Amino acid sequence: MNQDSYFKLDPSQVDPSDTRPILIVPYMWIGDFVRGHTAVRVLKQRWPNRPVDMLATSLVAPLLDYMPGVRKGVVWNLPRSQLALTEQWRLAQALRAEGYGTALMMPRTWKCALAPALAGIPERVGFVGEVRFGLLNDWRWGERALPRMIDKKVALTLPRGTHLTMDWPPPQLVVPAAEMAAWRARNGLGDGPAVALAPGAVGPAKRWTAYPELARQLAARGIDVWVVGGPGEKPLADAIVAAGGPRVRDLTGTDLRNGILALAAARLAISNDSGLLHVAAAIGTPSVGIFGPTSPYHWAPLNGLAATLQCDTKLSCQPCHKPVCAVNDHRCMTDIGAARVLTVAGDILAGLGITAAPVPT
Fold first, then answer.
1. Domain membership flag for residue 358
2. What is the pLDDT, as a whole number, of residue 2?
């Protein structure tokens, strides 16, 4: 889609005179955090001279270094499933010192709105959610009528009553070429074309099972393969490396920056419906998304994908959005064969001018 065709604010809604900083309190899952950059882009349309900061955990903080339009991150690791009043108060003091004029609370939880309220940020915008009267002073309604999470996020950046056209600008991550080259050199990865595989996902139902065979076939054709993900994907990476041999490298680990740089340096990314699919797409790396129990309309990246793969025959249980398959023996994923993904990958690589070697006989 041409950049000029994305959503544009009416000129009467644009205010270049306002310079007060804005704080975004986003969801802290990797994919949702990446989606949050669309909100940044819309905010910069509305208030081109207001700095935009994002609250972040240490896990997702590396993404901020590659997000145009974000001034900085406020990195704070609030404990999960706890109110943690002492930590909330300390965070509120840090926010107060920044002089924010507006805070946008993307999650609908009571907890996420507490520190901005304690900090006395004058404009606190969010959906009512968990009955957050008193914590918010710009309450928004109608969240459940918005079809996608991205629509809910962007609605909070706009004046109340704005017509939502749903053609939002996609997230962007900009990774300098010099940083990619230095990362490849540090890891001894040479300069040949590589395909990045992201086999992880939240819940086993979203995990495609044929990555080892795909890696074996790619490696046999002379393509380097990098397996990316968090420490939880280490067993999956071990199986993929064992199947693919020396051309396959395990790049999983605890530092998300490593995954960002791998996805940026790769010529193609192949991923389940996961946070790393959103990272690759936002970078602009051609990406293949493999979807089973989830709906691409609701959960695929806004950036668009080189290919979106689902099983050929739509099952009656799709989409279920369940983390564990309860019926059909995971057919929505197992019916997608490695040969089909390999053909799609080969076509994309050929379009990039990368010709795979024939398989040795």
1. no
2. 46
